[in-house]
Give the backbone structure.
Amino acid sequence: MKKINILSIDGGGIKGIIPGTILQVIEEKIQQRKGDDQARLVDYLDFVAGTSTGGILSCGLLTPSDEDPQKPKFKVQEVVNLYHKHGKAIFHKSFWHEVRGLWGILDEKFPNKALRKALQKQFGEIKLSQLIKPCLITSYEINNRKAKFFTQHNANLSPSEDFLVKEVAQATSAAPTYFQVAMIKSAIGVNYPLIDGGVFANNPAMCAYAETRKLDFKNVKKPTSKDMYLLSLGTGSENETYSYSQAKNFGLAQWIKPLISIMMSGNSETVSHQLKWLFDAGNNKEGYVRLEPKLLHASPKMDEATRKNMNALKEAGLNYVSENEKQIDDIVTNLLMNKGEL
């Protein structure tokens, strides 16, 4: 039975290189299977969700071509290159920025000028409603204290839900302490102060599941777990630990960074656990696939954008593919089969 293909990508800053690299390999394998170098991963997806760096990747994958607005503009490789080209500039801070902010105590760690410039170059003036597939990008509205979900399908229904993609990407990645709060405007001129969706849904796969349940697709209306094939990608398992003797006397300043990391990884693990059992209950055990590569030689820091570490992140992605070749091939098979192309 054909299923709805769903892709979900976690948050994790520069570590987005890892899922991006894996998705690039999956796209290349699809091209090899089809004998068509113009085939794109997005052609075989029905719904895409992302948080933070996963949100940026999602927007990149779904950006429409200038020639055909129903086709993707970028190959996965071109989307991942955003990190390699602009990562160092995005996660750069001048000495004077550090001094003015007392090394991150009184101000965000990084100015967002380079991030906004990179997003402008990547997305231009494309609107959320113009993305080529239904999607969900997470953020959190601090004024009204509630989750904000950017969805292509709702943007198509109402201009009040439509935004510039470059601003959606900025909002979903406005990580507290790293970047300043994003103030963005809807198509009808309403302002929203937003921060990184990772504060509540670093792994947006459950959000993707819930949103997909409400939609009608070509071959399935209001799908349940038995009708879904959900591929969820992490940004590298966290290997930094904290001992009792180290943490027992932590105060506010010492807890900030480890707490963010623990909350993000804890959320990802919890969501994965819930979905595993949810799909099992729907007699579709193979319908939920979670990829969580090891970081290996790469840094667990979200902002370690040195050339050496970005290469190490790419290596971690390729190493996962190499060590899990059958699993990657099975993913390709399922994506194609669910589209009736096998």
